[in-house]
Specification:
The complex is a heterodimer of chains A (333) and B (466).
Chain A lengths: L1 H23 L10 H10 L6 E4 L2 H6 L2 H4 L3 E3 L7 H12 L7 E5 L8 H4 L2 H4 L6 H9 L18 H9 L6 E4 L2 E4 L5 H26 L6 H12 L7 H12 L6 E5 L4 H5 L4 H14 L3 E5 L10 E3 L2 E2 L1 H19 L1
Chain B lengths: L5 H16 L5 H14 L6 H20 L3 H38 L17 H16 L9 H9 L12 H9 L6 H33 L7 H31 L18 H7 L2 H18 L3 H19 L3 H21 L2 H8 L1 H23 L3 H14 L4 H4 L4 H17 L11 H15 L13
Classes of the chains: A alpha/beta (333), B mainly alpha (466).
Chain lengths: 333, 466
């Protein structure tokens, strides 16, 4: 028995020690592009003037804080949609502030898939915060092991290493939470990315026709079609839209600037219900005084402004922010 | 209940402690209750399938042994086959057969209006079905006596460490172990703990890490290069091995804590001279099942060289099809079978003997064999034949040694995947008994690696879907 208890005890001591070292040392190497840093900052930030930007990886690579104003901070995180943004908004709205909030919008903004969109490594360093615990619990992401020192970061260490390894390089610029890459993949590689998108659209259309004609889809085909539809068309979710509108209406002193960021034509080609976004934006602009929706999805950018078929590069971000500033500067000042 | 969950880490010690607190004659009750609970955590309704299989096969086994009439024996065997294979057919293959039948009939302008049923495949059905069938077939063939104690028989069918993903155990091996008073030594406990840790390492550190790169590449076949697809094929083979053998390790370790020795299901299968050796050392419990209950009876019908080759291909197609109701699995088996036969034919030639006579050429042969295996695994991973052929086309026309090209997408995931694959390769140096001079160091290092490199994706084991 001693033969097993001793190594287990040693392992437990090592795990807890390393957990503490990690928390108090390694995590401090996080830069402002790390999701967990952003989360911790948002919870603790008390500046009255800060203008936050919330969004996904599109938001992180589109909004250049320096181009928009000295008080802008980009809190965008990859895969974040309103599963995460609602929590960020609630945290921000709890503060005694008046300024605007910029929110990146895309066709998947209202998809509800917390297991995919809520990355635990973002929240673990502030895992003792009651608001975070409640948020994770509500979304079914709270696990018992998250309370146990030594194992609570289980599954997250690699992610932290990944974010720490993402330092600025010669072609990568970071700016108050945003990451901008001065890179164009070249015509051939971009063409491969865009062709891949068109193929997915063809695949989706083919499966839908098959389904419509009454031919039964295999289980795999059903799964594939679900995925293709979520990743192309705008996913409506009236309940979540309403929740967002109520949030805005309950905070009339804050301006919610919703921006549909520039998309490559290949990405928009798969969206068949863009008119639903148009009417949603029109409704917000007309009926809710403090939601200001701007559609830049078809903002004219050449291919050289994209780093892949779903994100713009530094050049694209500069052009976009310059135009956006003209439209929203009256709201930011 | 998944092995890779906190629930199992609480469940297993509780069961083991309770196991040793109660008298041996009642232990089957505890284990049976624990096994049913383990299964019902997934979807409680499907426990009735296991109960029906158990009752039918228990009854059939006794009747087969009791009746002297050969015809009646056959009827009871057919009853067992009908019920078990019937369930398997309905839950796993029904939609596949109706869809393909409709397709064939439509070629003759006969249009059918069949419905696609959204059937959830019961976890482990392919495993426990084969396990119970081996029992009734063995009783029919007179190789074993029927079990007369319903409780032990039910436990044999539902024993939780190996219920959902094997190893597929024979009744003559497992039931006696379940009945006898376990004699467990410190060495057994050492082995069990080491095995469980190894299993978690393979699953959480290797399989779940590598799966991220594989999934990214396969979700974007059109956007990735031939080189990336080749390495994704390699890493998928690593994922499959780590995932499945990791599960088996946890199963074996869990059973050993209660004095039960499950059979070894993997014996370093990937670095082998040919496919015959690979299949003799990969998922051994399934391949030996197919050999004993399908191949040998077929070989008795016709032992000619041509017929044996045909049976070999047939059983590999069957093994492929066992994995799933998709043409990709059938092609996987078929290609495997054709390669195996070709290798057998070459082996006995002068060229074949020359290759095996030299250690360098032998290693090259193993390397070549590994490449064939991982390319065949493309069928296994692809959602349909078209995707598999697209992957093959890109691998063979776009492959190059340019590192920049390889790292142009998912660079971090690729590097980490190769890193953990290297760690997996190191574990191949361990002896089968997992004996180490400094066992405490092994335990500490494994725990460290699992906690710090493990993924919390709550990924199901790949073989659960079979």
């Amino acid at each position: 028995m001693k033969r097993f208890i001793v190594p287990l005890l040693i392992a437990a001591v090592i795990a807890i020690t390393l957990d503490q070292i990690f928390e108090h040392t390694v995590l401090s190497f996080r830069t402002d592009i790390s999701n967990s840093y952003k989360m911790e900052r948002l919870l603790g930030e008390t500046s009255q003037d800060e203008i936050p930007v919330f969004g996904s990886s599109k938001g992180r690579s589109s909004f250049i804080p320096d181009s928009l104003g000295e008080n802008v901070f980009n809190y965008s995180m990859e895969s974040a949609n309103f599963d995460v943004i609602f929590f960020l908004l609630e945290t921000e709205l709890d503060k005694d502030k008046d300024g605007p909030i910029i929110i990146e919008f895309n066709t998947r903004s209202f998809v509800h898939r917390p297991s995919h969109t809520i990355d635990l490594s973002t929240f673990m360093p502030i895992g003792k915060d009651e608001r975070v615990i409640e948020y994770l619990r509500e979304n079914g992401r709270l696990d018992r092991f998250q309370m146990v020192p030594g194992v609570r970061y289980f599954g997250s260490y690699i992610r932290y290493l990944h974010s720490i390894s993402r330092k600025a390089t010669s072609n990568k610029i970071t700016n108050r939470g945003g990451i901008f890459i001065d890179y164009y993949p070249g015509d051939e590689l971009l063409k491969r990315f865009t062709n891949s998108r068109y193929k997915m659209i063809e695949e989706r259309n083919m499966l839908e026709s098959k389904k419509k004609s009454g031919v039964p889809l295999t289980y795999m085909e059903v799964q594939m079609l679900d995925n293709l539809q979520i990743n192309s068309d705008f996913t409506e979710n009236p309940e979540r839209v309403l929740k967002f509108e109520e949030m805005a209406e309950n905070n009339p002193n804050r301006d919610f600037i919703v921006v549909f960021t520039p998309h490559h034509t290949s990405e928009l080609a798969g969206v068949r219900n863009l008119e639903k976004i148009d009417s949603l934006f029109a409704h917000w602009n007309k009926d809710i005084p403090n939601i200001h929706a701007f559609d830049y999805s078809t903002f004219p950018l050449p291919d050289s402004c994209f780093k892949n078929s779903s994100h713009i590069n530094l050049d694209g971000a500069r052009r976009f922010c310059s135009a956006l500033n003209d439209d929203i500067s009256y709201l930011l000042n | 209940m998944l092995f890779n969950s906190l629930d199992y880490l609480i469940f297993l010690p509780l069961v083991v402690v309770a196991f040793y607190l109660i008298p041996n004659r009642f232990r089957w009750v505890l284990l049976l209750a624990a096994s049913y609970y383990f299964y019902m955590c997934w979807k409680w309704q499907y426990i009735f399938l296991i109960l029906i299989s158990t009752m039918v096969d228990f009854y059939a086994g006794i009747q087969i042994a009791k009746t002297p009439d050969k015809k009646k024996k056959r009827w009871f065997l057919l009853l067992s086959l009908f019920v078990n294979l019937g369930f398997l057919f309905y839950f796993k293959y029904f939609n596949f057969f109706t869809e393909n039948t409709a397709m064939v009939l439509s070629q003759f302008n006969i249009f059918t209006d069949f419905k696609y049923y959204d059937i959830l495949l019961p976890v482990g059905i392919s495993f426990y079905t084969f396990q119970t069938l081996s029992y009734t077939i063995d009783v029919y063939q007179g190789k074993s006596e029927p079990e007369t104690h319903l409780g032990y028989f039910a436990l044999y069918v539902a024993y939780f460490p190996q219920l959902v993903a094997g190893p597929i155990e024979r009744s003559t091996r497992l039931i006696p172990q379940l009945k006898r008073e376990p004699k467990i030594s410190p060495d057994d406990v050492r082995y069990a703990v080491n095995k469980i840790l190894l299993g978690f390492f393979k699953k959480l550190v290797v399989a779940d890490t590598v799966s991220q790169y594989v999934n990214l590449v396969y979700a974007n076949v059109d956007g990735t290069t031939g080189s990336q697809l080749y390495w994704a094929a390699f890493l998928f083979a690593v994922q499959l091995y780590a995932d499945f053998s990791g599960y088996t390790d946890i199963a074996m370790g869990s059973a050993r804590l209660m004095g039960v020795r499950l059979m070894e299901n993997f014996k370093k299968p990937l670095w082998r001279e040919n496919h015959s050796q690979y299949w003799s050392n990969w998922h051994i419990s399934l391949t030996s099942w197919i050999r004993d209950y399908v191949y040998i009876p077929l070989a008795k019908l016709n032992r000619s060289k041509g017929a044996l080759m045909l049976w070999s291909i047939f059983i590999l197609v069957l093994i492929g099809f066992w994995h799933g109701a998709n043409w990709t699995f059938i092609m996987f088996g078929f290609v495997n079978g054709c390669v195996m036969i070709t290798q057998r034919l070459i082996r006995d030639t002068a060229f074949g003997k020359l290759i095996r006579s030299n250690i360098i050429t032998l290693q090259l042969q193993k390397y070549f064999n590994l490449n064939l295996l991982l390319l065949e695994a493309v069928y296994f991973r692809s959602v349909d034949i078209e995707m598999a052929h697209k992957v093959y086309w890109k691998i063979f026309t776009e492959f190059n040694l340019n590192i920049e090209d390889l790292l142009s997408l998912y660079k971090f995931e690729f590097i980490v995947s190769m890193g953990v694959s290297g760690l997996l390769w190191l574990t191949a140096l361990f002896n089968y008994q997992l004996r180490f001079k400094y066992n405490w160091l092994y335990v500490a290092v494994m725990l460290f690696l699992i906690i710090f490199l493990g993924q919390d994706l709550k990924n199901q084991f790949v073989y659960f879907q079979f």
